[in-house]
Amino acid sequence: MYLSVVVPCMNEEESIPGLVVRLSQAIKPWKDQAEIILVDDGSTDATWKAIEAAQLTCPQLVGVKLSANRGHQIALTAGLEASQGDRIFMLDADLQDPPELLTDMMFMMDRGFDVVYGRRSERRGETMFKKATAHLFYRFLNAMSDVPIPQDTGDFRLVNRRSLDAVLAMPEKARFIRGMFAWAGFKQVGIEYIRAPRELGETKYPLRAMMRFAIDAMTAFSTKPLKLATRLSFISLLMAGLMAVYVIYSLVVYQTAPGWASVVLAVSFFSGVQLLTLGILGEYIGRLYVEAKNRPMYFVSEDTRDVEQSPQRLRA
Ligand code: UDP
Ligand code: MG
Q: What's the pTM value of the predicted model, to 2 decimals?
């Protein structure tokens, strides 16, 4: 197998027919040695049916169905683990990332790069809010992270087997795949492209999911927030010292108990700092807990390659 294409799909019934058409066009030069793996991430719509239907028109298509929704990064991991190709191409189901860029990515990989990622020079059809938060996120993440993570890139990329094996060897459950490739090292290069608007359906990354993703990324790639907690406690100690001088001064000069303003200020400031620090600790401890449990990230409930396990296939 030369080329594997991996696409995580959650409630993408509308997108799949168009996706398969564009993908099979894009992989034409390699079609005899290619597979397209669509991972159904516990969809509640007819995504799996759409995958099975698309198999009739596209012989390279493989469907892998997860037993429940596990999130974009884990669905992608499941697809990557199922892939057999020497080169692995990953993209979203909604055609925001043009499959046609595969040709250019292949060209760069022939030049000796291990990872060729797409860099969004422009995002079309996305809200100002999404663009602004994404922009801030990538800058902030880099300021925090111990490894430089390419700016404005998603998981849209072509990787070779050795860089993928490096990433799959990392056992963590909190997966931030673009960062893991950056951390793995190897020779990487970006290709600029314009990110199209989503063709059909709606985003599966509402604000809440984006926040969770951002915190996952931050904690997985940096311990700087923990250091921030220490720094904050120093600042608050300093403030407490200044406050003490003020309190003693007003006690001596005015001979009265100092007003409530300083008390309220002190209490709210220090409790704020404490809660923030505890919160940061909690984020890391929660993640240690998840890693310590060491549960499998996902279960495959159906795989179209595996006739034994696929009741649909047996019945047919
Ligand atoms: N996705 C998934 N599981 C999830 C959420 C999203 O497999 O829990 C898939 C989704 O089907 C799509 C990709 O991840 O192929 C990216 O999601 P989306 O396009 O909604 O994100 P956006 O482009 O809006 O950031
Ligand atoms: Mg999208």
A: 0.78
